[in-house]
C-alpha cells in the first residue's frame, strides 16, 4: 500500500511540474519617448530620482550595451514590433523610407503572435507606427487598446472617463498609468497577458506636459552636465550637419548652462512621473499575486542629445541618441539569478524575438534580431554572439518638410538634395571598443570613427588618424556587409 501511495504522489508531482512548465509568463513592455539612456539613477545620475525604475533594475537585469537600430520614434517602434532593421521594413517618416507596415508585416509582430497563441493583448499610449489602416485592423491584434480617443472595447466607460477631453493635459502620463491599472483590473485569472505601455513622456518639455506636483520637486535641483555638452554652436561638426540637421539648429534650447538646466529639470520631471507609474504597476501585480510569473521590460524608443555635441534632437548616430536604457525584470527567477549588469551587445531588433521566446513560441523567419533569453539565463556562449550592432539614420528634415507640404515630386526632390550634397543619411556599426559611421550620400563621403575605450563621449573623431586606418577599413567593410545583409 505504501508503494502505491508513493507512486501516486510521484505521478501527481510530475503532473504539477508539467503544468508549471506549460504556464505562460505574463509580459509587460514599457516604452517611454525620447528618454536618454543615462537619465536614471541606475545609469549613474541619481538627481533624476528614478527610484522605482532603479529598484526594478536592482531586482532584475540592467543592460549596459543596448543600441537602437534607428534612433527616431516611428521607425524605431516599427523595429521593436517587427524585429527587423530599418533597412528591411523601411517604415519611417520620409521618402523613400516611408513605407506602411501592411497586414503580412503586422501578422509577424510580437502582439499578433502572442494573441494567436492565446494571450490577452493590450496596447496603451503612443502607437507611433505607420500601418496600412485598410489592412491592419486594431481589433484583430489587441483585446484592449487605448490610443488617443480610440478604445477597445469601444464601449468601455472607464477608458472613456480616463481619457475624457476635459481632463488636465498635464496628467498625460497619469492617464496611461490609469489605463494600465484598468487593463489589469479586467484581467481573467486563467489567461496570460501581454501589455505594451507606451508613454508620451519624456518627449517635449512644454508647460502642458509638466505634471505640477512633480515639477516642484526639481525646481531647485542642479542637474549634472554631460562631458560632451557644448555651449553655443559646435563648429567642429560636419558641415552638412551644421547646415541642414534639425538638431544643430534646435540646440538653441540648450545653448547656455542656464538653458540646459531648465530643459534637464523638465525631462527629469516627466521621468519622475513615469517612475511613479512603475511603482503603481509593481504594487498592482503584487496585489494580483502574479508578479512571480510576470516579465517586465523597460526601455525608450530613442535617445536625445540635450546639448551633447552641440545638438538637441536625436537620430544622428552618436551614443547620446543611439544607446538605450534597457532593464528586464523576470519574477519567475530566484533572486540569486537576478540583480546584475549585462555587457553583451544587444540590438533593438532583439526585443520582438525575445518576447516571443519568453512566451515559449516559435520566432518567425522574418525577424532579423536574436533571442537574448540565453544571455538572461547565462547559457549563451558569448564567443558565438554578435561582435557588432548595426545602426542607421535615414531622417532628413528637408524630406520631412516636403512630406508635410504634400509635394508630389518627392523622387525629384530627393535626387536633387543628394546631388547638391545636402543629405546626412548615415549608417554605421559599433562594438565595445569602436564606433564608426558614414554619411554615405555625401560626395566625397564623410566618415566618423571613435575609440570608445579611450573616448566614451565621442569627442575626438579619429577617422583621419593614420594609426587607425586599419580599424577604419575594417569597420567600413563591416558596415557595408551588415547593410547588405539586413536590407533583404
Write a short abstract of this structure.
35% of the residues lie in helices and 14% in strands. The protein has 488 residues and is an alpha/beta fold.
Write up this protein.
With 488 residues, the protein is α/β, with parallel strands linked by helices. It folds into 2 domains: 24-381, Alkaline Phosphatase, subunit A (3-Layer(aba) Sandwich); 390-486, Arylsulfatase, C-terminal domain. 35% of the residues lie in helices and 14% in strands. It contains 18 helices and 15 strands. The strands form 3 sheets. A 9-stranded mixed β-sheet has the order 6-5-4-7-1-8-9-2-10, with helices on both faces. A hairpin with a 6-residue loop joins strand 14 and strand 15. Helix 8 runs parallel beside helix 12 and helix 16 (397-404) packs antiparallel against helix 17. The longest helix is centred in the middle third of the chain and has 32 residues, at 257-288.
The count of strands amounts to: 15
| CATH architecture descriptor name of the largest domain | 3-Layer(aba) Sandwich
> CATH top level of the largest domain?
Alpha Beta
CATH superfamily of the largest domain: Alkaline Phosphatase, subunit A
Number of helices: 18
Main sheet attributes: strand count, strand direction, barrel closure: 9 strands, mixed
Beta-strand content bin: 5-15%
Mean of pLDDT: 94
Morphology: globular
Radius of gyration: 23 Å
Provide key terms for this protein.
488 residues; alpha/beta; Alkaline Phosphatase, subunit A; Arylsulfatase, C-terminal domain; 2 domains; 9-stranded mixed beta sheet; 15 strands; 35% helix; globular
Amino acid at each position: 500500500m505504501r508503494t502505491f501511495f508513493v507512486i501516486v504522489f510521484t505521478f501527481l508531482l510530475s503532473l504539477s511540474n508539467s503544468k508549471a512548465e506549460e504556464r505562460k509568463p505574463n509580459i509587460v513592455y514599457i516604452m517611454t519617448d525620447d528618454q536618454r539612456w543615462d537619465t536614471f539613477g541606475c545609469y549613474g545620475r541619481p538627481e533624476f530620482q528614478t527610484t522605482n525604475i532603479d529598484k526594478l533594475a536592482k531586482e532584475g537585469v540592467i543592460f549596459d550595451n543596448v543600441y537602437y537600430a534607428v534612433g527616431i520614434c516611428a521607425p524605431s517602434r516599427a523595429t521593436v514590433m517587427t524585429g527587423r532593421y530599418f533597412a528591411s521594413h523601411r517604415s519611417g517618416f520620409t521618402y523613400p523610407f516611408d513605407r506602411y507596415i501592411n497586414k503580412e508585416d503586422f501578422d509577424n509582430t510580437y502582439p499578433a503572435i502572442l494573441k494567436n497563441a492565446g494571450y490577452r493583448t493590450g496596447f496603451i499610449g503612443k502607437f507611433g507606427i505607420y500601418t496600412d489602416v485598410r489592412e491592419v485592423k486594431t481589433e484583430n491584434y489587441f483585446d484592449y487598446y487605448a490610443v488617443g480617443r480610440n478604445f477597445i472595447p469601444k464601449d468601455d466607460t472607464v477608458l472613456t472617463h480616463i481619457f475624457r477631453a476635459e481632463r488636465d493635459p498635464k496628467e498625460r502620463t497619469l492617464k496611461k498609468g490609469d489605463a494600465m491599472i484598468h487593463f489589469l483590473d479586467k484581467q481573467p485569472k486563467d489567461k496570460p497577458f501581454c501589455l505594451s505601455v507606451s508613454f508620451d513622456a519624456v518627449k517635449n518639455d512644454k508647460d502642458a506636459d509638466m505634471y505640477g506636483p512633480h515639477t516642484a520637486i526639481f525646481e531647485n535641483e542642479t542637474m549634472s552636465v554631460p562631458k560632451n555638452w557644448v555651449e553655443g554652436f559646435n563648429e567642429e561638426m560636419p558641415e552638412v550637419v551644421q547646415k541642414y540637421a534639425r538638431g544643430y539648429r534646435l540646440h538653441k534650447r540648450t545653448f547656455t548652462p542656464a538653458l540646459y538646466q531648465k530643459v534637464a529639470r523638465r525631462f527629469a520631471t516627466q521621468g519622475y512621473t513615469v517612475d511613479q507609474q512603475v511603482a503603481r504597476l509593481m504594487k498592482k501585480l503584487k496585489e494580483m499575486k502574479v508578479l512571480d510569473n510576470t516579465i517586465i521590460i523597460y526601455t525608450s524608443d530613442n535617445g536625445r542629445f540635450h546639448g551633447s555635441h552641440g545638438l538637441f534632437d536625436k537620430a544622428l548616430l552618436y551614443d547620446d541618441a543611439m544607446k538605450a536604457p534597457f532593464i528586464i525584470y523576470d519574477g519567475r527567477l530566484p533572486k540569486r539569478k537576478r540583480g546584475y549588469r549585462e555587457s553583451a551587445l544587444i540590438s533593438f531588433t532583439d526585443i520582438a524575438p525575445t518576447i516571443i521566446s519568453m512566451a515559449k513560441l516559435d520566432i518567425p523567419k522574418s525577424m532579423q534580431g536574436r533571442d537574448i533569453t540565453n544571455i538572461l539565463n547565462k547559457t549563451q556562449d558569448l564567443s558565438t554572439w554578435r561582435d557588432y550592432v548595426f545602426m542607421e539614420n535615414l531622417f532628413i528634415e528637408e524630406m520631412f518638410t516636403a512630406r508635410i507640404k504634400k509635394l508630389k515630386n518627392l523622387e525629384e526632390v530627393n535626387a536633387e538634395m543628394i546631388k547638391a550634397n545636402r543629405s546626412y543619411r548615415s549608417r554605421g556599426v559599433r562594438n565595445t571598443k569602436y564606433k564608426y559611421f558614414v554619411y554615405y550620400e555625401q560626395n566625397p563621403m564623410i566618415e566618423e570613427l571613435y575609440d570608445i575605450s579611450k573616448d566614451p563621449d565621442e569627442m575626438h573623431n579619429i577617422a583621419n588618424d593614420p594609426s587607425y586606418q586599419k580599424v577604419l577599413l575594417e569597420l567600413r567593410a563591416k558596415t557595408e556587409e551588415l547593410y547588405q545583409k539586413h536590407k533583404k
